[in-house]
Amino acid sequence: MSQSEVEQLYTLLDETTTILRSALASSYLDAFIENVDNIIDDGQVQVEDGQPTEAVVKQLQEKYAAINFSKVSPEDVRTVIQLSMIKAIKEDSIQSNHQMTPDTIGFLMSFLLERVTKLSDEFTILDPSVGTANLLTTVINHLQAETKQKATGYGIDNDDSMLAVASINVALQKLPITLYHQDAVDSLDIPLVDMVVSDLPVGYYPLDDNTKNYETRADKGHSYVHHLLIEQSINYLKPGGFGVFLIPSSLFQTEESKQFVEWINRHAHMQGLINLPDELFTTKQGQKSILLLQRRGPESKQAKQILLGTFPSFKNKPELAKFMREIDKWVASNLAE
Known about the structure:
This protein is α/β, with parallel strands linked by helices. The chain has two domains: 90 residues, Orthogonal Bundle (DNA polymerase, domain 1), CATH 1.10.150.470; 239 residues, Rossmann fold (3-Layer(aba) Sandwich). The protein has ten helices and ten strands. The model has no long low-confidence stretch (mean pLDDT 93). GO terms for molecular function: DNA binding; N-methyltransferase activity.
């Protein structure tokens, strides 16, 4: 689809969501979820307790007739849903932990996984904090396109609304991703996977009893949820598998970092830590980095030189391309068999 066609599709979604929002007196996000569920259900409008009215149902169905997702590429579907979520975040003042990973960061994480994994077969991938599935589907679409290998994905989240959007994302993109509504710190009913990608939530995990079996749990008080989810991710990686995590740049500057690093050294190889450009963040406290970990296994090894650096400004395409080539050189020197 051209950019204008994508915009037209988004506009139709926005118009129908707004009509439904007004009719149901709901949040934009809830109206969006119900609206797209109607579209997926062949344009059948869900009516409960007489709402929406027959007049609104007719108005919606007339507009639904112009919406056809069957010929839309997965990436265009993802873009349309992303635009809708940006509108929802603005309209409903959704908290920052629920906001989506920017595409530029998603593409960098995809590139990194593509380069370090050297896929030659079907692969499995987990996101333990899947949210709307924007990051997970970005990575799967990129890896399937570049490697021509099929993916099977798993996404975990305990937020009903975010998982509802993820379900829409997965259904419309026709991707083989299984979603689980649960706390990712609890035991997961999934197989070991080839790789993990996640934009981790940041802060304290309130349920101390759930962390008793975690080596990264705090000695006193609540534990950092991002520490726990990285440990959980490594536990569900196949030996030698890679995890790429979006983390606070201050991760290794906290009092708990010594214990966290000791855990990494026991169970994984810290292969890379790349800072993201300052321009992506409004405050220094909000700055993020990309952490590359590899689960220890019979054939894994610590890189002779950890991949360190800072991505150049995304506006400076020559420098960005140069940095990508440096990553290729690093992989050839440190990870190639």
